[in-house]
Amino acid sequence: MKFRKKQVGGFRPICTGSPSIGVVGGFNLNKEKVNYPVGAIIPSASLAEYDESSSRQVVVLKASRVVAIDTTDAKKVSLQCDEFLSPIFMVGDHVAKDDSGNFEDTASITKIINDRNGYVIVLDKAIAGLKVGEALFEVIEGPAEGDGKTPAIFPIKQPQGVTVGAEPMGTYIGLDEVSVDVAINSKGEMYYKRRIPPIPAKFIEGICLKGNPNIQFTDSY
């Protein structure tokens, strides 16, 4: 028997206003470039990069905050998971604090434990210097440069906005095509950075999304 998670309680705003008026939609989740877990929910305001060409596909960055690290085994990392935010990582994903370094040196997820005690990922190697409160992002293998090693890169290069949830919790990932809408203009309102999935520092410029000053963020609670 399969169960689908739904929100039946209250609602926590992720923006100081309603950004839905600055939305582009109808993009299909790109499941070829990135593996997404069927049955999971993409949290609202996840960083997204879409293609306006004939493919009309969108890639959503997997991201989550570290809430605990096992004191006896640093390869066991607990991630933020509550009624508003749930990680969408999968076994086999490679994760890192940023997109620096070589891909082969990054840690990969070997096991995910998601129960009433929390959401724990087990890595094949500990991540040096990882601290509670920091974020982990999915990285993929970039193109090799010469005879050197392949770099670790984010699956998105120039995100234009953040996802708009089809439901209060976000967008459900089904077996078939998944339609994703993207907010590209918050119309002077601001997204609460602490209430949405973390965003890599390289994509933030001041209070704005780098490359799109119409998406703005605040550190307020």
Give a brief rundown of this model:
By secondary structure, the chain is mainly β. It contains no helices and 18 strands. The protein has two domains: 19-61 and 155-218, Virus Head Decoration Protein, Chain: A (Beta Barrel), CATH 2.40.300; 63-153, Thrombin, subunit H.
- The low-confidence runs, each spanning 5 or more residues with pLDDT under 50, are 1-10
The residue fraction in helices comes out at under 10%
**CATH architecture descriptor name of the largest domain:** Beta Barrel
- Helix segment tally: 0
Mean pLDDT over the full residue set: 91
CATH level-3 fold name of the largest domain:
Virus Head Decoration Protein, Chain: A
Proportion in β-strands: 35-45%
Order of helices and strands: EEEEEEEEEEEEEEEEEE
